[in-house]
Amino acid sequence: MNTEGVVLSARSLTKRFGGLAANQDVSLDLWRDRIHAVIGPNGAGKSTLTNLLSGDIVPTSGTVTLGGHDITGYPPHEISRRGLGRSYQKTNIFLPLTVEENVRLASQSRQRHRPWNPLHWVDTATAHAAVADRCDRALELAGLAARRHTVAGTCSHGEQRQLEIAMTLATQPQVLLLDEPLAGMGVCCGSRLSTRSCWSSMTWTPSSPWPTTSR
Ligand SMILES: Nc1ncnc2c1ncn2[C@@H]1O[C@H](COP(=O)(O)OP(=O)(O)O)[C@@H](O)[C@H]1O
Ligand SMILES: [Mg+2]
Hints:
By secondary structure, the protein is an alpha+beta fold. It has 2 domains: 6-82, Rossmann fold; 99-200, Rossmann fold, CATH 3.40.50. The chain is built from 7 helices and 6 strands. The longest helix is centred in the middle third of the chain and has 22 residues, at 120-141. It starts with 5 loop residues before the first strand and ends in a 15-residue tail after the last helix. 33% of the residues are buried. The structure holds adenosine-5'-diphosphate (ADP) and magnesium ion. Residues 46-47, 89, 179-180 line the site of magnesium ion (MG).
């Protein structure tokens, strides 16, 4: 089988918590430009699988490959840097900060620092523009542009879920894993986030020095 379009692979992933095997011998391929879903009842092991793929937990056995590179056992920040973004079942945001500040923090995590560069002030100016661009685009995609100055802690549950997804989008991931993204959302927020155009309108060319955005 031609696996050229596969961006993330798991092979024989197993995670044991003591005597309980939350995931056993799981193998899967995620393909570029496709939406995949993992379904199952509570306790089936969906969050555990997401945590294994993102590096939040280390597998008991098995391997994870991202973009053809074995990332098994890598820490989450390194896997994120390599292009895997994820949201959590339990919302993870900075409540005292505004919506925009939350997203900007995520966007800033993608900037490279080159202090040895004698023209670093040019770098800094370019970086500011790139951070702002990613931030604006992520807010727009997640439907939060009009709420950017709102303190995150005062947002509704649905908006906080949208915000976490905006933060993930601001890192311009190659692969986006969403753990129960619509949980607790109303019809309005849920349908806005589930439109395919939202997910397909961000592109990132991994070979380019900075992520690029297109519509
Ligand atoms: N850190 C943990 N320690 C012990 N057991 C866990 C831990 N995380 C998950 N489990 C168990 O693993 C199983 C799968 O959980 P989970 O992956 O959260 O399922 P799902 O997301 O499909 O509801 C459950 O029985 C759960 O209690
Ligand atoms: Mg879960």
